[in-house]
């Protein structure tokens, strides 16, 4: 009987079977034990599994070795490979997409201010001025120009302003234009996509906690 050192642990979860790989031993030992467990597994039929390498970073070659081993010695299918670590490039991308970029200026007609992440404008956005952000847009001033939040497709983003009287608001692919007739603006409002109507709607800022309770949780933004 082969001696196993529990370098590989299989656990059933609500999301299926997760195979945890020990992150303290050598990768070769992980492969050896995984091979032994696969050879002794008597179950039949295709089953999807998720491999979790915990705090071990797997190179592309190591990931391919795992795929090949599981394919050669079992009917299992690898759905995903997860870990608690990310590359420096991924970390930089996460930082860029989740930090608030602040400017203290007025966005005038013809000017375009574009950021990755959330945009905080301390000043006005004049008619003809445009702000684009992959995240949310917060305006500590008058929004009278164009604000486009979630430019890469995030429909959970919002546009908030101290005074809301925009030419146009866009969130992801949804557009809300100002009416042809003159209307008064409104103080302390935010725009969001109502999931029921799939349209952009306005609401008072005091309701933001109810409608967007995870607004400040960066891990809920689909990154």
From TrEMBL:
Positions of the Septum site-determining protein MinC N-terminal domain: 8-81
Arranged from A to Z, the UniProt key words for this protein are:
Cell cycle, Cell division, Septation
Q: Which InterPro entries match?
A: CAP/MinC_C, MinC, MinC_C_sf, MinC_N_1, Septum_form_inhib_MinC_C
- Family annotation (Pfam families): MinC_C (PF03775), MinC_N_1 (PF22642)
The reply to whether Metal-binding figures as a keyword in the UniProt entry is no
Where does the chain cross the membrane?
none
Could you tell me the superkingdom of the organism this chain comes from? Answer: Bacteria
Q: Which residues form the Septum formation inhibitor MinC C-terminal domain?
A: 103-202
Q: Which family does it belong to?
A: Belongs to the MinC family.
Biological role: Cell division inhibitor that blocks the formation of polar Z ring septums. Rapidly oscillates between the poles of the cell to destabilize FtsZ filaments that have formed before they mature into polar Z rings. Prevents FtsZ polymerization.
| Quaternary structure annotation from Swiss-Prot or TrEMBL | Interacts with MinD and FtsZ.
Name under which the protein is recorded: Probable septum site-determining protein MinC
């Amino acid at each position: 009987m082969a001696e196993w050192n529990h370098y590989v642990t299989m656990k059933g979860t609500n999301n299926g079977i997760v195979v945890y790989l020990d992150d303290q031993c050598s990768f070769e030992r992980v492969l050896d034990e995984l091979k032994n467990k696969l050879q002794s597994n008597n179950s039949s039929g295709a089953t999807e599994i998720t491999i979790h390498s915990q705090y071990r970073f797997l190179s592309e070659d190591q990931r391919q070795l795992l795929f090949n081993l599981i394919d050669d010695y079992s009917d299992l299918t690898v759905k995903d490979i997860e870990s608690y670590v990310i590359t420096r490039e991924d970390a930089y991308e996460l930082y860029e997409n989740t930090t608030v970029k602040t400017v203290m200026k007025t966005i005038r007609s013809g000017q375009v201010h574009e950021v990755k992440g959330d945009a905080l404008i301390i000043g006005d956005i004049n008619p003809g001025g445009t702000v684009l952000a992959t995240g949310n847009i917060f305006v500590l001033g008058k929004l009278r120009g164009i604000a486009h939040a979630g430019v890469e497709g995030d429909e959970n983003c919002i546009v908030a302003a101290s005074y809301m009287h925009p030419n146009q608001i866009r969130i992801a692919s949804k557009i809300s234009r100002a009416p042809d007739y003159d209307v008064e603006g409104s103080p302390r409002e935010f725009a969001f996509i109502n999931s029921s109507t799939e349209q952009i709607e306005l609401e008072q800022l005091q309701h933001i906690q109810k409608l967007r309770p995870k607004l400040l949780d960066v891990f809920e933004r689909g990154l």
